Amino acid sequence: MTIYSAEFIKSSKFMEDCPEGNKPEYAFIGRSNVGKSSLINMLTNKKGLAKTSSTPGKTQLINHFLINDNWYLTDLPGYGYAKASKSSRAEFSKMIENYILSRKNLVNLFVLIDSRHLPMQIDLNFINWLGEEEIPFSLIFTKLDKVSQKEFSFNFKKYSQKLRETWDELPEMFKTSSEKKIGQEEILSFIEDTNKYLARNKIYFGE
Ligand code: GTP
Ligand code: MG
Question: Does domain 25-105+116-177+188-200 have CATH number 3.30.360.10?
Fold first, then answer.
């Protein structure tokens, strides 16, 4: 799929402030600093579209970007930010939980995982919660450029094993590097196919 337009729409603190949910929406979530905002910039070929930072906790709100006038990409704040206060963490989980559970046009949530790490409990808990709530999701392994092939295969295998403990079928998984532009085509094709599926089945949102 060719991206011919990618436009920042708004940042929202609460679900109720989000733009009208009348188009298919794809959101990015994962631990702070995993590379969510960088990935959005890589996918859209627009460097400064989503704000990135080497310090975790950069994205604090729900950010909507309209792509090709036709669907939304959503950048979410990261979870597991160690320095956040307890109350702000609680407020954050409520805001994100509410968004994930009630955003009707959210067709897929991409959960980002850092390729450098072995499976982390916080990610597994989050993934399992999505399963319980029947939220459609896929996994994206990020920062592939930071690991050797061997290291990645090892971590990937461990991840798959862990997931098999609770899932009969593994979710769709993508490998990416925003730095080296790896995985752009695969993710955009996945979104394109999903959009086509929705159109073919006349699944529209609030129109
Ligand atoms: P929060 O908004 O704080 O939750 O973080 P985020 O998940 O949006 O991460 P962000 O995109 O801001 O990236 C965090 C850091 O990782 C930045 O310093 C990026 O340059 C770096 N980074 C992101 N993706 C990649 C990648 O694919 N390769 C490398 N080498 N660095 C990356
Ligand atoms: Mg961010």
Answer: no
